[in-house]
Amino acid sequence: MPYDYNTQRKRMALPEYGRNVQKMVDHIKTIQDRDERNRAAKTIIQIMGNLNPHLRDEGDFRHKLWDHLALIADFDLDIDPLYPFPEPTKFIEKPNQVPYKQGNIKFLHYGRIIELLIDAACEMKDGEEKEYLTTLIVNQMKKSYITWNRGQVADEVIIGDLKLLSGGKLKITEGVKILEIKELIPPVKKKPLGKPHGRLQNKPFNKKKGYIRH
Question: What is the 8-class DSSP label of residue 205?
Fold first, then answer.
């Protein structure tokens, strides 16, 4: 008797319901009596609901189950559903294109987020909040610069880039501290060395006798 491998079976539209539900749906397609098909479909809906109790938290719980039944049946099921089956084309539509701000990023190592933060800070009224945000931006710029360029950078370079990106609208007030590299990027902790091999620890050593064991 040949083995029945899953890879040789019909592909399931919604595998989370399992192979048995797929078989049930395929079976009711063969039922001749319409009333019996409708009763069988409602029974399958109950089973599907029990298999996915998390769907009960959604407001359109029942509607979603009937949509799933249509998907499992490949939209080829002649019954009277509680909710109209969706159009197959609804599930093959291309997703809407996500809008993305066009334009070149002036400094790739700073990225788009920094430019957006700078634009937001430029729109703020002068005061402590604007100064605080500007300080955060400068320190993040320094961190990004070091991360991508793997080297030192003078604070004057970061301040100059800030002035350029903000069109001169942002500046570092006197007394503001720009963090050091070790504060921005903590050093990697070295793993503790294991016990040395060969020599015994804390044992007196004699050139002629070797280690003296007590």
Answer: E
pLDDT of residue 185: 74
Q: Report which of 106, 140, 94 is spatially closest to residue 121, judged by C-alpha positions.
A: 140
pLDDT band at 120 (very low <50, low <70, confident <90, very high): very high
HSE (side-chain half, CA atoms, 13 Å) at 36: 7
Contacts of 85 by beta carbon, 8 Å cutoff, 6+ apart: 66, 67, 70, 75, 77
Is 139 a domain residue? yes
Least confident of 49-53, 69-73, 135-139, 153-157: 49-53
pLDDT in tens, 32-84: 999 999 999 999 999 998 887 777 766 688 888 999 999 999 898 999 998 88
Domain range for 164 is 111-184
The number of distinct structural domains making up the chain is 2
- How would DSSP label each residue in 142-180? HHHHHHHH-S---HHHHHHHHHHHTTT---PPTTPPPPP
| Alpha-carbon torsion, ordered 22, 27, 29, 33, to 10 deg | -140
pTM: 0.42
- β-partners of residue 210 are 206
d(CA 146, CA 107): 13
Report the run of H or E that residue 211 belongs to, with start and end: strand 210-211
Beta bridge partners of 211: 205
